[in-house]
Write a structure and sequence with these properties.
- The protein is mainly beta.
- The protein has two domains: about 10-90, RimM (Elongation Factor Tu (Ef-tu), domain 3); about 100-160, PRC-barrel domain (SH3 type barrels).
- It has helices at about 75-80, 100, and strands at about 10-20, 25-30, 40-45, 50-60, 65-70, 85-90, 105-110, 115-120, 130-135, 140-145, 150-155, 160.
- The protein has a six-stranded antiparallel β-barrel with strand order 1-2-5-4-3-6.
- Strand 8 and strand 9 (about 130-135) form a beta hairpin.
- The longest helix is centred in the middle third of the chain and has 6 residues, at about 75-80.
- The radius of gyration is 23 Å and the shape is elongated.
- Belongs to the RimM family.
Length: about 190
């Protein structure tokens, strides 16, 4: 199921499995500002039937986070929320964009060569991905992480990609050259 994020909203997290019997759920936090999920905060979900929720508690321990909402009091209701996105109005942030802002941007390599066009941003369980149409027409899912997409310039109309070898269909894997220091010079014999 593809989520539709309302204009002007950003993803704060994705709800995971129920935790305990009182309605708590695991949450994959997708914001650097976890204060946006503090107790008493009202957030929106991507399911119109669920709508708004009020955070009653956010706990983090051992790298995992659990969250509780005032409207959810038992495990069954908590389990029914699995997979929902938690949304909030966007704030003015230097490195934040709406998914719709990225559609249509040109994709360039770090050396400036054209790598294609961003068609859309998809929310995936591990992290968002850019759907890239390469010059050959191939569509490739590019992990939207800083190490692979180090530059996003919405005003300039482009993103810069640093894809690992083999990620892009139009970029063949580099083969190691068999020529060079390992080859004997003319008249020399290779050691046996």
């Amino acid at each position: 199921m593809s989520s539709v994020i309302p204009e002007g909203h950003v993803i704060l997290g994705r709800i995971g499995a129920a935790h305990g019997l009182r309605g708590e759920v695991r949450i994959e936090i997708r914001t650097d500002d976890s204060a946006r999920l503090a107790a008493g905060t009202t957030v929106l979900t991507d399911d119109p039937l669920v709508g708004e929720l009020t955070v009653s508690q956010l706990r983090q321990a051992s790298g995992k986070a659990t969250i509780a909402f005032e409207q959810v009091n038992d495990r069954d209701d908590a389990e029914a929320m699995r997979g929902l996105l938690i949304l909030a109005p966007a704030q003015d942030e230097d490195d934040a964009w709406y998914p719709s802002d990225l559609a249509g941007l040109a994709a360039r390599g770090q050396d400036g060569r054209a790598l294609g066009e961003v068609l859309e941003v998809r929310a995936m369980p591990a992290h968002d991905v850019l759907v890239l149409r390469e010059p050959s027409g191939a569509r490739t899912l590019v992990p939207f992480v800083r190490s692979i997409v180090p530059v996003v310039d919405v005003a300039g109309g482009f993103v810069v990609l640093a894809p690992p070898g083999g990620l892009l269909a139009d970029e063949p894997l580099e083969e190691e050259s068999l020529e060079g220091d390992d080859q004997p010079d003319d008249g020399e014999q290779a050691p046996a």
